[in-house]
Each structure stands twice: as C-alpha cells, then as structure tokens.
Design goal:
InterPro entries: Secre_tail. Keywords: Signal. Pfam families: Por_Secre_tail (PF18962). With 433 residues, the chain is mainly beta. It has two domains: 323 residues, 6 Propeller (Neuraminidase), CATH 2.120.10.30; 72 residues, Sandwich (Immunoglobulin-like). It is built from two helices and 33 strands. Strands 29, 30, 31, 32 and 33 form a five-stranded antiparallel sheet that branches. Strand 22 and strand 23 form a beta hairpin. 47% of the residues are buried. The N terminus is likely disordered.
Length: 433
C-alpha cells in the first residue's frame, strides 16, 4: 500500500524550509514564461535552457530562435551542445535525429535497416555531459528499441533488448550507460520495467529480481555521472545508486496519487512531478536538505519568498535540473504541446551555504579510503553522513574543530557529509573509494 506524508510531517518540513530560508538568504527566483508552446526540455549550470523550438537565457528571461537548420531541441549540457532533430525530407515532412556540437548542427541519419519513408525514425532524448553520446528511441517497422550514437566515431547503433517486446532510452551519461525501460510480457499483455544498458551490451532491470505490479510509466528517467538513476516504480519515485546497488523508493507527497522523478543533478538533487488530480501535476524536489521524502517545489520556493504566479498555483511538471543542482525547468499544467514553460533558480539553497568560497570547513582527502579529516574555525558539534539517496549511514557528536571521521566501513560511492557547527550546517560532497 502506498504511504503518504502526514500533515504533521509536512508541517515540520515547511518549518525547516522557512528556517532554512531565513538562515540562507538565498537569491531564489522563478521565471514563468507567458508565451504558449514554451515548455522546457532541459537547462544547464549557466541557466541556458531549451524549449522544444527555442533557446533560453535565465538571466535575461529571454527566448531566442534556434538555428534555421534545427527543427526541434531535446537536451543540452554545460557545453551548450544539443540533441535534437533536423529535416530529412521536407516534402514528406520526415525528420532525422541530429545534434549541435561546437556550434554546428550535424545529421545523425538512419540505420541501414531503417526505411524513413515507411515511418522508421530515431527520436533523440538526451546528450551526455561530455557530448560523446546521444540516445533515444528507434524503430524498424514494429520493432521498437533504443539507439546510441557516438559523436566522435559517428557510429549509430540500434539497441534492441532480445528478451523484450519494446523499449526506449531517455538519458545517457559519460560512461555510456543508457537508462529507460523495456517491456516484459505479463498476463495483461506487456509491462514496462525500469532498465539500463551498459556499453558491454548487458541489460539490467531494477530493482533486481522484482517486476512492477502496477501498470504505470515504470521507467528510469535520468542518470548522472555518478551512475545514480531516478525514475518511478509502481507509481512511486525512486533513486538507484549503481555504485552501492541501493534502490530507494520514496513516499508520495500529501495529496498525490502517483509520482515520478525525472532528473537528478550531480550532487544528488532529484526533481519530478506528482499526480495530484486528473491530468493535473505539481512539481516535486528531493534532497536530504529538505527532509527524508520528496516535497513540492512550490513549497520550497514559497518558503523562500517566491510567488507562484501560475494559473492554478501549481508548477505542473519539473523535467530537468542542472548538473550543479541550481536550476530547475519544466512546464505548467495543460496540453504539453501548447503550455508555457518555467525555470527556477535555487542559488545555493540545496548545499546549505551561500558561497562555497566562504565555507568554514575544509576536508581531505577526497576521494577518501579510510579516514576523512575535517577542519573548521568553529567547534564541530556533530557530523552526519548520508548516501546520495538520503539514507543516514553515520552520525556522531564531537567537541573539537579538528576531527577525524573513520569511513572505512562505508561502501564505495558518493556521500553527503553534513557538518554541524555553531548552529550552522555545511554539506560536503565526498567520494568513498
């Protein structure tokens, strides 16, 4: 049975958010576009975003048209390289997957087995942070799977799960790990299952050995370069850490019937949406900074003085978060092809510090094998360590400003270390080897 956050817990979360807002004084902002057909697909660390057809700059809150040769835009990265589409046959309105790299648009073309005149197509969804890989969905006739394109070798590869009836991949990281879903037969026909594929050609279903019991989206929506994946399973959001083989399923926010994570930053901030009514969504966000469970993004913004000036007071769908966890983009409720987009700036709200350069805590080594050394100008009161999925694995009190923390028992992976000193909290990102 799906659990929901109680009103008491939500009230406590809101109190923490308000307290955090007064302490952080972060410059949190929200831009809601007024033009229709401006739903966002992606945004990067510089506030450079893409809608389906246009480029966006958060600082100026302005849209500019894409290049004439580009038709649609699907994903971008910090290099401002882009996955999208170009026209293949204008007379018959046939598109082909394409990408912009170093400012130049290039067609990807088709597999030798494909017949673009007979509705075979490649739909791009993502470009890796290093711009090497592009992934999406492909089909040859009625056979649907994924594709992987290498921008360095210009090799296009069709990826079809031999055990599945169909599949698609929505994201790819620098390690070439593609994430999405595959179909598995069940008594009702087919059942989508969250899946990822590694460069050696192996398919992996998550969680291992467990199929969904509810027909929903059931997909992995995104993966970061730490090999941490997000998505939904049985109508609930999840985070899966490949390094530690940890699958964490989260509760639904109050009032939600279903929820999913769509994107995760390099520092472990996950965003997505909750279904709060018939064809009505509200954006959600998760990070240990905000508590143990996902919360509504509008609550975080309102707690930091931001007015939600959408027609229904909701933020609809959060589709992407920048790699540094500072920008979030999405679209309001309504028919997706026609709705308005929005973008939010979280400043350093999630990290718990306004300026990393002003941090009072230094630490070494990073990566660490056995002992993590912490040094601060203030007395350290306590240290807590969390997995990137929010599970506390270490908590101890101290009374010193030079502290050694033994992490030898922790599994390899990325961890968040919260250092409490003089009524302030600083969050450090540490890699355990």
């Amino acid at each position: 049975m799906m659990k929901k956050i109680t009103f008491l817990v939500k009230s406590m979360v809101m109190a923490c958010l308000v307290m955090g807002a007064s302490q952080l004084q972060a410059q949190v902002e929200l831009n809601v576009l007024t033009q229709p057909e401006t739903r966002f697909n992606d945004i990067n660390d510089n506030g450079f975003g893409i809608t389906v057809f246009e480029y966006y700059d958060f600082g100026s809150n302005q849209l500019t048209p894409s290049e004439e040769e580009a038709f649609t835009l699907a994903a971008t990265n910090n290099n401002e390289d882009i996955a999208g589409t170009m026209m293949y046959d204008e007379t018959n309105f046939i598109l082909q997957a394409a990408y912009r790299k170093d400012g130049t648009w290039n067609p990807i073309g088709f597999l030798p087995e494909q017949d673009p005149q007979n509705f075979d197509e490649n739909t791009p969804y993502d470009i890796s942070p290093n711009s090497k890989y592009i992934t999406g969905q492909t089909n040859i006739g009625n056979d649907y799977g994924g594709f992987l394109f290498d921008t360095e070798t210009e090799e296009l590869m069709g990826v079809f799960d031999p055990q599945g009836e169909a599949g698609a991949f929505y994201a790819v990281n620098d390690n070439g790990i593609m994430v999405g879903w595959v179909d598995r037969p069940d008594t009702g026909g087919t059942l989508r299952v969250p899946a990822y594929r590694t460069l050696d050609g192996e398919y992996h279903l998550i969680p291992e050995g467990q199929l969904p019991t509810v027909t929903g989206i059931n997909t992995i929506g995104n993966i970061n370069n730490n090999d941490v994946m997000v998505g939904d399973f049985d109508l609930q959001p999840f985070i899966y850490d490949l390094a530690t083989d940890t699958f964490t399923q989260y509760d639904l926010p109050e009032g939600a019937d279903a929820a999913a994570f769509t994107s995760i930053s390099e520092n472990g901030v996950a965003v997505g949406y909750a279904e709060v009514g018939f064809q009505v969504r509200d954006a959600i966000i998760y990070h240990p900074t905000f508590g143990e469970q996902p919360v509504y993004l509008k609550d975080v913004l309102q707690a930091n003085g931001v007015t939600i000036d959408t027609d229904d007071g909701l933020l609809g769908t959060a589709i992407a978060i920048s790699p540094d966890g500072k920008y979030v983009s999405g679209w309001v409720n309504g028919p997706p092809p026609f709705v308005e987009g929005w973008a939010a700036y979280l400043d350093d709200l999630v990290l718990g510090t306004n300026d990393v350069a002003q941090s009072t805590v230094s630490f070494y080594p990073n990566p660490v094998n056995d002992v993590l050394h912490l040094n601060t100008t203030e007395t350290i009161d306590s240290v807590a360590i969390y997995t990137i999925t929010g599970q506390e694995v270490f908590n101890v009190d101290f009374n010193d400003n030079n502290t050694q923390v033994n992490v030898s028992s922790l599994s390899s992976g990325v961890y968040l270390v919260k250092v409490n000193s003089n009524n302030t909290v600083e969050t450090l990102k540490v890699v355990k080897q």
